[in-house]
Amino acid sequence: MVIYLVTFSVFLLVIVAMAVGYIFQRKTVSGSCGGLDGIGIVKECDCPEPCDARKKREARAARQAEWKKNQII
């Protein structure tokens, strides 16, 4: 049991040290390669008009959100 507590303490200490380092650097969180922004893509889908499948997904999500909103009230 002592080994588990020591291991947990070491992991906790490392996480706290990383958090303090992050706070003092004041950098934004980013991926190792910069993500899509690194290659000039502003958003995941650069289409001027969404495709039919995306419109259907968005409509379904809006209906579900509306349904949930009405269920809460």
TrEMBL record:
InterPro entries hit by this protein: NqrM
Any one Pfam family match given in the protein's UniProt record, by short name: NqrM
Highest taxon listed in the record's lineage: Bacteria
Protein name: Na(+)-translocating NADH-quinone reductase subunit E
